[in-house]
Amino acid sequence: MKHFEHPDKFESRHIGPSFDELNQMAIECGAQSVDDLIDQTVPKNIRLTKPLNIGEPLSEFEYIKKLRELASKNKIYKTYIGMGYYPTILPSVIRRNILENPGWYTQYTPYQAEIAQGRLEALLNFQTVVADLTGLPIANASLLDEGTAGAEAMIMFHNLRKKDKLNSHKFFVSQELFPQTIDVIKTRAKLLGIELIIGDHKSIQLNNDYFALIVQYPSDSGEIYDYSDFFKQADSLGIYKIVAADIMSLTLLTPPGEFGADCAVGSTQRFGVPMGYGGPHAAFMSTKDEFKRNIPGRIIGVSIDAQGNRALRMALQTREQHIKRERATSNICTAQVLLAVMAGMYAVYHGPERLKKIASRINNLTKFLSQSLKQLGFEQKNQNYFDTITLLTDKSLQNKIHTEALKKEINLRYNKDFSIGISISEATTFEDVIELIEVFANATDKNFEVRDVNENDYESYNSFPAALKRKSNYLTHPVFNSYHSETEMMRYIKRLENKDLSLVHSMIPLGSCTMKLNAATEMLGVTMPEFSELHPFIPEEQALGYKELFNELEKDLAEITGFEAVSLQPNSGAQGEYSGLSVIRAYLEDIGQGYRNVTLIPSSAHGTNPASAVMAGMKVVVVNCDAHGNIDVDDLRKKAEANKDNLAALMVTYPSTHGVFEESIKEICEIIHQYGGQVYMDGANLNAQVGLTTPAFIGADVCHINLHKTFCIPHGGGGPGMGPIAVAKHLVPFLPGHSVVNINKEKSIHSVSSAPWGSAGILIISYAYIKMMGSEGLTNASKAAIVNANYIKAKLEKYFPVLYSGLNGRVGHELIFDMRSFKQSAHVEVEDIAKRLMDYGYHAPTVSFPVPGTLMVEPTESESKAELDRFCEVMISIREEIKEIEEGKADPNNNVLKNAPHTLQMLISDKWNYPYNREKAGYPLKWTRQSKFWPSVARVDNAYGDRNLVCSCIPVSEYAEENLAN
């Protein structure tokens, strides 16, 4: 029936080069064909003998039909469950221009500041929103979710204990914290030897054994407490205070920083970010200035460029956790940048006055609901409230209310003590509240009539103490007071977008990061209401479409990795590493070997590997690599034997971080098992394995899967990410559980993320990719990635030495070019090459990782042969520019590389004090005249930014002073 098949296959849309081009490229690499090249690259002893059992691919049209069928199985009820997740209204101008715009969602983490100024400004806005609303001066550029943010704050303050508190290991957790946050904190505390004391903050007797505490504001039940006296008691004992706060409520309530908090954490989900059945959402953390060098995650700061102009950058970069490695205090790598951008833009669009009105409306509707239910005879558990009330009922009445609510397709929170929680949101209307009241009236056989409602009564009535009413201003900066019409907002978003290089402009050839196509059809489900508007704690029968998707995705990922089962909960790659190690530790404890706590990690490993091991309470022992970049098997065996009594795991990346399929990988795994350890495989380079081999076949026991790399979830400028773990049969009982939704296995560890399925809203993307590629397509993608990398090697190795290659001179899906000799021959640093690439319209490859002075290139399978050739032409041109310095034709200190990147402002300036012409600077190759991405700032001065740290929008007064000075 071939003649009746539609010719348009998704595989040919995803894979850049055609079949014929791939064979031609393989021949140029010295192989006879694609398959011959793969045979020379991937060791025979790890090759699969059977194809993947994923099934035949769906066309894009067929997939969209299937997606709609899945969506129809999810039911959108009106949800008032709360617990940190709320219906919200995402302004269409933000939905269309950011969330659905590849110019925003395909960007990479802003390590190259000169071509990321737009996103950096959006993140600076986010930090300002958080700092202003929490009343604490330093905020990071987002965390994964509220639960992990709370756990990160706990760990930060455990690390910050002073000398007189080094033996203090108790952490007080208010019993009124959200249950999912408590669960995540339990997971983190256990492996670090922190003792949790969960109780009532009103009666707990603090003493010197405590190092920190955390409370919820407003609390889980909706109660709003004045924590001032409690915090004063903590202060007298040197105990750090953390507040998990509702960001919307802080427009009305006294901010945590004003009643003594050392740190505030929470989620910005209700600032226009859909619930997405649990995520992704940008969490926040803010703290005092004295902790600015200890706060985990990324901080955006203000600096200057080489021309003296204002420029933004990632501040305190030397403090990034992956650089600290085994000395890390956090393993955070992926943040939730795209979601932080959206939340920050929500604040920009609404501004302080409208935000306050939104919060006041929520509060007024809650007051009306509360007073009306009291008239019906219901007793309220919480005296004070912002948006949440908890009603006291018994089992029989709770069941009646539940029945009546379901008739009207309403979800409430039904607690184990038979109380009922109701949380009002921005999306709630006055008519919705009437409907809620009718549910309770019908359940009690009482009549309810809407009498004339005097809105002034609810505006003047306080539902929380006057002492807790916010008096301080917030969001006074012009950016939050200028773009309130859609026209102005649209132009502001576009202005920032135009300052950022993304995949819409050119290939982003980052080694280890797999910046491949994020196809439009894969993205469709993310904004479908049936997927985006579901609360993660709704009854299972309302999310049958999600359940089917999860089951199929877990099955397919298990097949792809060769493992028995998968947990979708970890919501980043580093989180997956941590989860996998936690599962290993739980297994070892279960078999009576909980004392095993040593992890072997190759010196070439990703920096998050040792950081994750530290977070999991492990001791790190580094294994050397040989001269060819492979794990030194003799050193591994020696260290495994030396630690045989305590060996817990090996963390290994395959192909290696050096871009090579190591021939001895099976032997390496066998050595670890011989000495009682488990093998953890880092899934960062899984893109070269799919369909060719599997972690299980190689000999691993667990791996994490970077869905934002191999499986097409966009990087979103540094997040969202997802890092599910796949495990062998003996580890299945220990996969993460959840305290609210019962997904628990036989011996599940506590949650590693706030939501049961992590960032469920973006799992649709990976599901789509797998379904549309099918078994053969997935395998072909791996082959194409390997061919593309070897093609670049063949084209460029005579210009730039390739540092490592495999047994047959082949590389995996990525390769490392050694640039260190140019420092000697031309005074050119690897950073100079990275910055010069911007003048050609390219993002730099990975700089100085895993080897200082090198560039690691990964082309991915999505880039066409034409784009690969263009990139190679650029690299050859840069080599010629280096040659000009070597031959004395160009000044060693004043040349196109040292002064790169060149901005448009530099080229059109009246002053041009360079020994080369403007054309050479700005249009180095002919085709750059036709298509040119201009960096918006010149080279950024990192040292200046660290010396003069500014991490939020500068106050208006400083702008005035600056203008006066000019």
Please tell me about this protein's structure.
- The protein has 966 residues and is α/β, with parallel strands linked by helices.
- It is 38% helix and 11% strand.
- The chain contains 32 helices and 25 strands.
- Strands 2-8-7-6-5-3-4 form a 7-stranded mixed sheet, with helices on both faces. Strands 16-22-21-20-19-17-18 form a 7-stranded mixed sheet, sandwiched between helices. A 4-stranded antiparallel sheet has the order 11-12-15-14, covered by helices on one side.
- Helix 13 packs across helix 14 (430-443) and helix 20 crosses helix 21 (608-615).
- The protein is globular and about 85 Å long.
- The termini are far apart.
- 58% of the residues are buried.
Described by strand count, sense and barrel closure, the largest sheet is: 7 strands, mixed
Average the pLDDT over all residues and give the rounded result.
Answer: 94
Strand content: 5-15%
Q: List unreliable stretches of 5+ residues.
A: 317-321, 956-966
How many separate helices? 32
Q: Which term fits the overall shape? A: globular
As an assembly, this protein is single chain
> How would you classify the helix and strand content by structural class?
alpha/beta
